[in-house]
Amino acid sequence: MSRLTIEASTPLCLLQDAGRFGVRHLGVTQGGAADWCSMSWANWLLGNNLDATVIEITLGGFAVVAAEDCLLALAGADLGAQIDGQPLAPWRSFKLGKGQKLLFTQPLLGARAYLAAPGGFEAPKVLGSSATVVREEFGGLDGMGLPLAKGAALSYRGESLLLREVPLALRPDLQSNAPLDLVLGAQIGQFSGQSLFDVFNTAWSLDSRADRMGIRLLGSALHYQGQPMISEGIPLGAVQVPPDGQPIVLLNDRQTIGGYPRLGALTPLALARLAQRLPGDKVRFTPVMQERAWQDHIHYLQSYL
Amino acid sequence: MNPRIEVVALDCLMLRLFDEIAEANMPWMLAASERLRGAFGEQLIDLVPSYTTLMVHYDLTALSPSQARELIAEALIDLSPNAQAAGQCHVLPVWYDLSVGPELDLLAERSGLAVAEVIRRHSAREYQVFALGFAPGFAFMGLVEEILAAPRLSTPRKKVAAGSVGIAERQTAAYPVVSPGGWNLIGRTPAKLFDRNRDGYSLMQPGDTVRFEAVSHAEFVNLGGDDTPLEALA
Q1: CA–CA dist A32, A19 (Å, integer)
Q2: For testing the chain B interface, which of A20, A23, A25 should be mutated: the one with the most B CBs within 10 Å?
Q3: Does B43 contact A at CB distance below 8 Å?
Q4: ipTM for this prediction
Q5: What is the DSSP annotation of B49-82?
Q6: What's the predicted TM-score (pTM) here?
Q7: For every one of its 234 residues, what pLDDT tens digit does chain B have, with 9 covering 90 and above?
């Protein structure tokens, strides 16, 4: 049953879930919400599975009109959302009455907002997931990888009566300047000493060349002194350094294998924070041990219980 | 073989088995893959093989990094190469023609061979599938004869037709879908390389072998091939 009609959209408004798994050995990318923390909170608000299908709205320009009374949830970036002109802050579930319009205008804080519906938005599973990967033509409303388009109808089947907010103490701080945790990789010792100093002691600026495959960072040029690499699997959050010395952080829609040397990989929590930053923003890195980062992660997951 | 386990991310470890690309790696890679799939079971999220490595992405809610590392180490005990479990052998029909494989001339010129001889040599070998990547179902295969090796185009094409067969260095591959690409194109296959409705999705899997078989234009079209010349796509 159709419950919402899309009145405005952009190529950056996509159905997403946790991503596509068990097929990466076939060259199929992972996909999924770039800020998995906020996706999880949007679903948590409604009592959904944390990986139920949501709408990822990047930068705004999205609007829906309710065909009947709806209960929805919003988490992540503040994209200047309004219901019939009244501001709607994220991190809460809310009612959207029949005929009312929910509009996302422009980024006020963060880059990506997540809109959830009871039980998740209806979409076919392609290779096990509804995550939209435009390049590979998988996922989305028709399963062919198309972004959400004006005129399309959205439906869901669940029920929820949960009107609530994410407790303040648990909300991700999208303004935080805390450095991003980087798990050091095998090639870290093959960067020059000056490069290692620069990685962790200088600020990195987000380039405008950023999409769901990766985010380029601008700063001091890093020098890799090791042998050329043979292509190998690329994890989510990998920080690779191409020959120009400017690192690229690889996101959900990255290629599955690649041959640039890597500093390591951001932790999933750090990556979720990076996914909320805008071009021109500055970030810093801090090294973290794998075991320690794992403990932090497991601890964080308990906030959804 | 000199196996090493390296950290690559919070929930991923890299098992590095070799330092060079070689066809002889494959029986070991297959054996290690099988062991790892067995050892991790439901806790394996993805296993990403490449030429010399296997990346293990595991469920971090079920295993700590040290537990995952131990599982990998145990899985490798008494590992022996898996020769007979080598994958399927596929025969890919290819229409070798300048209209769909414009670098046939270039390869002939570089090698000093006639175009027909380039075709004969490319289709004479049985190739290993080393890894899939770049796009769903895109199989990196090799090794082609040294004399046919050629570097990637200095300017990649914006649009390469689906089914295009190409060579880069000593590797060969076929493009599953229309995509940008810098390989030297020599022909086109009508084979459907990735199909979301097929069991296993990808025609070729790591460890399979592939032979190319030259077919005529008529056979190519009969098999469902699209003979639109490459220039018409640009």
Answers
A1: 4
A2: A25
A3: no
A4: 0.96
A5: E-SSEEEEEE-TTT--HHHHHHHHHHHTTT----
A6: 0.94
A7: 889 999 999 999 999 999 999 989 999 999 999 999 999 999 999 999 999 999 999 999 999 999 999 999 999 999 999 876 668 999 999 999 999 999 999 999 999 999 999 999 999 999 999 999 999 999 999 999 999 999 999 888 999 999 999 999 999 999 999 998 999 999 999 999 999 999 999 999 988 999 999 999 999 999 999 999 988 876
